[in-house]
Amino acid sequence: MAQRLVLIHTVPSLVGLFTSLADEILGPEVEILHVADEILLKVVLSQGGLSPFIYRRVAEHAMAAEQAGASAVQLTCSSISPCAAPARAFVSIAVLTIDEPMVDQAILRAERIGVAATAPTTLQPTSELIKTRATLAGKHISLEAVLCQGAYTALMSGDMETHDRIVRQTVGGLMERNEIVLLAQASMARVVDTIPASERRVPILSSPRLAMERAKAVLHSTH
Fold first, then answer.
1. Are residues 131 and 197 both part of a single domain?
2. Is residue 116 over pLDDT 70?
């Protein structure tokens, strides 16, 4: 019987990206189900961070996924990544964050790490995750986390051109000062493809592909 992976999104437009990645990386032997819950990110942004409501709602999604026969849950938004650990207490399946594989690779490859985010609620959890994972790895790093001012508003209004321009400018500045640059949100991933190879002074990492490759490994280990 095919395994089932449930992806929990806060931005519905990411469904297409992850469907394509799942088809490529996981193949037909893994059934993908999507939960697009806009309430999560909207409440996080309006409250300026996570709240008991957000933790509870993510845990409820994880429990529903397990009841639906999922072998694992994949969160696709960095703003709710801190909710993964508490949610694991309520289920017997893996609850995976979007950013951990990307962060671990960055720590392995560089000491000066730049992070770009479009949503203000993403910068702190991503920065804290980098510091925590670096400590666990016994590695000293320097971290520069920058908000792409105005990009999130442009994204929500459908102005992708402005969103991409702001992200490219921010990433360009980070590349001048760091050895590697991380895109803190999955919605920023496609912008990498618009940056010419000649302008990529340092590696630019985005989370979706790395997360799906990790999900494949997790599913394989539980099969």
1. yes
2. yes
